[in-house]
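Entry: Calcineurin B-like protein
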Amino acid sequence: MGCFCSKNTRWTPGYEEPTVLAAETPFTVSEVEALHELFKKLSSSIIDDGLIHKYSLYVLCVQIFDLFDVNSNGIIEFGEFVRSLGVFHPNASVADKTTFAFRLYDLKHTGFIERDDASIANCIFLLKEMVLALLHESDLVLLDDDVELIVDKTFNDGDAKGDGQIDQEEWKEFVSNNPSLIKNMTLPYLM
């Protein structure tokens, strides 16, 4: 007779035990488990099959590429690369970091972070990841529904005018009141 698990566990293709991965990498078991949660979210963004497909990352990569391709010619030149990465330097101004983050979330390039954006799922995903990162720092654990409520509240707090979108001035004010929103925009090894 074989062994069978009575627990209704859904194993995904390519899943590896966190203890094994922790033994083979610098991560702790709890860090690997946190990375698995992030992986599950990324892998369910377009096709919920437990795998990250090229297109899932493609959408985000295009957005980031466009931020680096300052002159919009379809290529990133060395100067654009260095200047764009400059925003992550510890000496970069909060204003530059705030502007860069706004451009990242302005998915349609309309000058607004919009709730009804066709690609809002990516924006909400990034916003969720910011919320989860903040919660991780305080060792809080929340259910997905709770995180959704926090994301909604966060968007509503940023949308000071209540018009369903966040403009640049609202974003600047929101970041000045919540500096942790751009905390991850500084590369610590440059300090």
